[in-house]
Amino acid sequence: MNLLKTIQDCAQAHGCAAGVCDASPLDAGYAQKNAFVPFVRQDMTKRINPSAVLAGAQSMVAVAVPAGAPVPCGNDGGQGGPMAQLSSIGANHDYHPRVKAVLNAIVSALAQHMSFKHKILVDSPTLDERAFAQRAGLGFIGRSGLLISPQWGTWFNIGLLLLDIPIPADFPNGPTTSGCPPACRRCIDACPNGALQPAGGLDAYKCISYLTQKKGWTGQEGAMFHGQLFGCDICQNVCPFNKAPRPTTQVNPQQWLDMSDADFAEKYGHTAMLWQGAALLRRNAQAAIDYGNH
To answer: Which pTM value belongs to this model?
Structure first.
């Protein structure tokens, strides 16, 4: 019985990639390099130690699920006033159900051979998904701070499956590239807030995507949106590992201010964006009006 092949075959049947790694904690140097990572718990033990999430965790499956093209949601239109940019995550179908479906299929495939305990993580605030997906061989973390896959560049989503059974670690997708080209600064130069550091690393407090989703936001941070209404694709659209930029969705922020909660749910309920709530989206719309593209 080849459990690794079972995992690979299941992932490939869903048009995805999978890798397996051990569930040991991330190395001690991680804490110094990643003191603050957006949307991940600041309890370092829970961020780096899979056994703090699933007792007795021995192995981990990481999947890369390619992102679909953004779904046209219609131009909010309107005459006059500033328009704002909606990122692909704000216009695309919510990726959480699809990634969970792939991981559940892997669980079902493995359960035909043995019993085990497991934990599925998709966009979880616990473990650092990118770091463990890199360990599992799905790609490398680029200067943008994003995991870069040989197949899909940065246009994919990550899911993790913790298991309390051992599975030999392997890199089923072949060797990944070693990293970003030494001279490439496209993402660094493109970020209008200078959030990306030349030596590597992300200053999340300057990251547009983080700021548009941040709770406890201050009004002054609206000046750092640069016309982005929710999320941001700037660094991804210039990355040479991505074959093409994602289509831009133009949104009239005034129309967002005029929408009821029910209107938001009807028009954007298919996206992950709505998880943040209509009130936060209106806040961003007001910032787009107040600051425009400045």
So the answer is: 0.90
